[in-house]
Specification:
Ribosomal Protein L13p, Chain: A, alpha/beta, 5 helices, 147 residues
């Protein structure tokens, strides 16, 4: 038995559109992270960029369960003593819904330099239902949500 390792000439990158309307944030982030890494393909190779480009639309309509919308905060330190900034999820979702999804997807990716490259190049998040990537002819991708 030999382990298969994909060659760069064998890798194809598709464009997929994911609608975040009514999808829980964690399920959305884990599904998008798997698409970006390429784990859904039989040619998955961990050290190569074999994933697809993912466009997330309706980011502002993502679903949050429980009381996360009020209790969850994002932490940032400015570098000065005592200058900690805690931004509630409700405010971040209202101002920058794309950052909420980008941060959730980044948390699902492995912590290495390839993950940062994949996130910056392959993930496109938009708060509304329109996106400027019609020329790439993206295919719709649905995330299964149990009711």
């Amino acid at each position: 038995m030999k382990t298969y390792s994909a060659k760069p000439s064998e890798i194809t990158h598709d464009w997929l559109v994911v609608d975040a309307d009514g999808v829980p944030l964690g399920r959305l982030a884990s599904a998008v992270a798997q698409l970006i890494r390429g784990k859904h393909k039989p040619t998955f190779t961990p050290h190569m960029d074999g994933g697809d480009f993912v466009i997330v639309v309706n980011a502002a309509k993502v679903k949050l369960t429980g009381s996360k919308i009020d209790k969850k905060t994002y932490f940032k330190h400015t570098g000065y003593m005592g200058h900690e900034k805690h931004t509630p999820l409700r405010d971040e979702l209202a101002k920058h819904p794309d950052r909420v999804i980008e941060r959730a997807v980044f948390g699902m990716l492995p912590k290495n330099s390839l993950a940062k490259q994949k996130l910056r190049l392959k993930l496109k998040v938009y708060g509304e239902a329109t996106h400027p990537h019609a020329a790439q002819q993206p295919k719709p991708y649905t995330i299964k949500v149990s009711s």
